[in-house]
Design goal:
CATH superfamily of one domain in chain B: MetI-like
Helix content of chain A: 25-40%
Number of domains of chain A: 2
Shape of chain B: globular
Radius of gyration of chain A: 22 Å
CATH topology of one domain in chain B: MetI-like fold
Number of helices of chain A: 7
Oligomer: heterotrimer
Largest sheet of chain B: 2 strands, antiparallel
CATH architecture of one domain in chain B: Orthogonal Bundle
Strand content of chain B: under 5%
Chains: A alpha/beta, B mainly alpha, C mainly alpha
CATH superfamily of the largest domain in chain A: Periplasmic binding protein-like II
CATH topology of the largest domain in chain A: D-Maltodextrin-Binding Protein, domain 2
Strand content of chain A: 15-25%
Amino acid sequence: MRRRWIWAMVWGLVLLPWSYPAQGTTLKPLGMHQISIIGATSLIPLTKRFLPEWERRHPGVVVSVTAGGSWAGILAVAEGQADIGMADLAPLPKRALRLDSYPAGRLAVAFIANSDDGVKNLSRSQLVQVLQGRIHNWQTLGGHDKPVIVVSRPMSSGARAMLDRLVPAPGLSADAIIQLSNGAVLKTVRETPGAIGYVEWRPGMGGVTMLGIDHQVFDTSRLAAWPYYTQPTFYVAPGASSLVKQLAEMLSRSPYKAEFGIYRAQGIPR
Amino acid sequence: MKPVTGRPRGDHLLYRVVWLGALLLLMLGFAIAAILVWGTVKFVIDHGLNPSLLGTIYQPTHDQFGLLPFIAGSLVVTMIAIVVALPLALSVAVTVIATLPRQMQMIRQILSGLVAIPSVVFGWWGLSLLVPSIRWISGRPGFSLLAGGLVLAIMILPTLSLLSINALDRVSVRWVEGSLALGATPDQTLGRLILSVSRIPLLEASILAVGRALGETMAVQMVIGGRVLLPHGLLSPGATLTTQLLTDISLLPPGIPGHYVLDFMALLLLVAMYGMVVLVERTRRWSL
Amino acid sequence: MRGQTWHRLALVGAVLVFTLFIAMIGDLVWQSLGVLSWHFLWSPPSEMGHGGIGPELLNTLVMVGIAALISLPLGLAGAIFRVEYRGAPGFLKVFDRVRFTFLSLPTIVIGLLVYQWVVVELGWPLSIRSGIVALVVMNWPFVVNIGIEALSGVPDTSREASMALGATSSQTLMRIVFPSALPALIAGLGVSTARLLGESAALIFTAGINVAVHWSWSMPGETLAVHLWYLRTESLAPHANAEAAATGVVLLGLVALVLYLTQKIAHWLKPRDYSRKSA
């Protein structure tokens, strides 16, 4: 009797996963076509948003998306470890120069400060000094008496690369707190008084002060006028299959780009 | 009962199979060490005996591999964890042994349940409560070595309490009764008899807890702040060997110059763990 | 009573510890209440809010289940060899050092190694199967340990009695040692499975941090623990914090369920022992 119960429980545990009816998930056999995408965290929401419908139209294909930062994305494609790399990096590393690129447009880099800092506008040289860690208190800039805390991304990030070009030597403050993604930077700045950081802007980012630079306000309805941006791009190896190239092309023209703050660069017809 | 009709041939097969299993584990263990050593050798080939290794500047894309900040971070965080957790775990153990001996079995079960709490849950809790509290009290960012250490302290508490209870439980009741009968107060009995007799098992428990704290990644990464400079205080953000590994696997994928510094960091952790295993072996020999 | 100061202090400390854990779990449950529902358990996650953890739950169950099943025979073989056959003393020393070091190796190091071997060298995708490899490597020494402890708990007199009756060593193992060690073994396996359920560091770079529409072995396999980390640190979805808490509650529930069931089974198996008949 007892033994039968035990077996029932064991089988129950073994069979439980297979009976699990997760919505929208279909079971597929082995040996189907596999496409892997890796790269910038700022492009993952866009890719995740677009993929389900593409996957439904291509029932034989599984697409995996992995974060890792722009740097890892480009290198993984260059090394043949992934099919599509997502990156907003410039300048490109040497081994990425021969890759096919599918630019998606531009992504504004907004400078954000905690709402308690009491500063709404910085001049460009002030911004650079703050990011270099040379200004230690917001009082110096007419804000409240709060120590400046720089929040940054790791060096694998495209936004960080843009910033490294903006901030001359000795470069970004080594004292900075490092958060692994766009979202983590936003949350940290939102929750930490005295914090300043930078994010690739997308709708829904709130709860922080969007800093104006040189009296130019960060206006989300006129993103094209904002001078700080990255250029998110999908990279594919030249020898990739037409299916992979088609997916990269579709992703770069995805109708959901605006939902994630990607806008068309002026004067470029795409 | 059926008569036994076995043949030694089955024995031989069984022996072969389990021998193979043991050998595979050994081979995997040695393979891990070998790969990390080989990675370190490649690091030396790529970058020479890089003098920056002993420095404090870490810019792996620019040939600067100062690992000192991370080693310091790991040590400090682990120290905080054990210094905070040990007295608390001893309190639990003493209370259970002296005050609640009848509930010992139940408390053991509760504690072994708590041991299984996933580390990300501790990280979640540190991020929701600990970091804001530290920020509120100190006026600093809150992401700090202290936060990392405290999260680890709470994480190793159940393990350490359980091991401490086991250690104290081994002290013979007769000795305790004898001590009390000779007129020693309960406190004197505790300090001069129970704790002093069980100091070696307690040391072993602490080493195991230190090993767990030193190897933890996620819970620490969520609250420590990831700053790559040498920390200048407990409230300063920092990084540990494990959290920096997590951050840099994506910056330095294989094939990139500088990737092998990751193997070197992993090797340091492996050597630290080996050291602790040998230390535990030693303490066991003392206790005999 | 005089001279109890330290005991009182200890009592305060113990109460503090238990309050801490109750507060922590209570806080987690409290914050999760807003989003925890059947819908949450079943539906796929969403970057735009009102997502769920359906695929993550499925991935966790499949990956942990299979990894536990694979590492069980591997670990048991090592344990049987260590306890029943032993080998030369020098071998024993090396074996024990390797297994203890392996056991305490940080899981991020295992993640790094599996990433280098399986993803980069073999070219497997970041997927459920790569994640299973990481979990097996992580779980193997743990199962060896559990096996050794369970088997050493069987008194040598049983083995000697069996051998004296003319049984071969394999018969002794299968009919005498194994059944008596089974309760301890099952309880230990419960603990190791609970440990796998909560693993995240070894999986981020081997199984990835997303889920796909089609389920397959090569699909990226975000697990509950990884999802909790992703939600709490990176996700910008509304209610991400509450969803993280809810994921934590589900994870804790799974861990508790596994521990409870395995302990129950271990308990049921115990009285079948001959010791009860003789008593």
